[in-house]
Amino acid sequence: MAPSSPRPALPALLVLLGALFPGPGNAQTSVSPSKVILPRGGSVLVTCSTSCDQPKLLGIETPLPKKELLLPGNNRKVYELSNVQEDSQPMCYSNCPDGQSTAKTFLTVYWTPERVEGGAPRANLTVVLLRGEKELKREPAVGEPAEVTTTVLVRRDHHGANFSCRTELDLRPQGLELFE
Predict the structure, then answer these.
(1) Which segments constitute the Intercellular adhesion molecule N-terminal domain (predicted)?
(2) Is there a contact between 62 and 81 (Cβ–Cβ < 8 Å)?
(3) 165 neighbors 150 (Cβ within 8 angstroms)
(4) pLDDT tens digits, 47-72
């Protein structure tokens, strides 16, 4: 049996991978802002920065429409991300002589309900059942569509009463407002 010859492609592949992915180094990528809550269809400015002065690459990876805003310097780029329709995690990346690194920003999209069971983020959405102006029941909107039931003892003075429901999207903890 003849000895097998070395595979020259394998060392070349390893060298290529080492060049593309040099591993951890001192380069640091940062993103600002790190968390954003914005209305569906909205836009946001995202800044990608790196700690090295002369990055080989600096950019953002996202399926969202993006436009780079021109700034002086090599270690910072600002992108306008537009038409944000759903939650997303764009990732800034840099490739510097001393290593590669990444940083993510977390985009949370909200929208007010077009129907009673609509709206997002669901964690901030509540369904309220009413008789006239009196609140009968309040529950978090779970699932799509959300389902909330209650039992009402009917009395004579309820004749002609108006039963209804509404949803409340409470974004006050994020510095926005309560949408009904």
Answers:
(1) 25-115
(2) yes
(3) no
(4) 999 998 888 999 999 999 999 998 87
Q: Residue length, the chain?
A: 180
Pair 84, 38: CB distance under 8 Å? yes
- Whether 80 and 151 map to the same domain: the answer is no
pTM of the model: 0.66
Checking DSSP bridges between strand 106-110 and strand 125-131, what pairing results, if any? unpaired
Nearest Cα to 143, choosing from 113, 117, 116? 117
- CA 111, CA 176: separation in Å to the nearest integer? 12
Q: Which residues contact 57 (CB under 8 A, 6 or more apart)?
A: 93, 94, 95
Looking at residue 18, its pLDDT comes to 41
- Domain around 96: 29-110
Tell me the CATH number at 97: 2.60.40.10
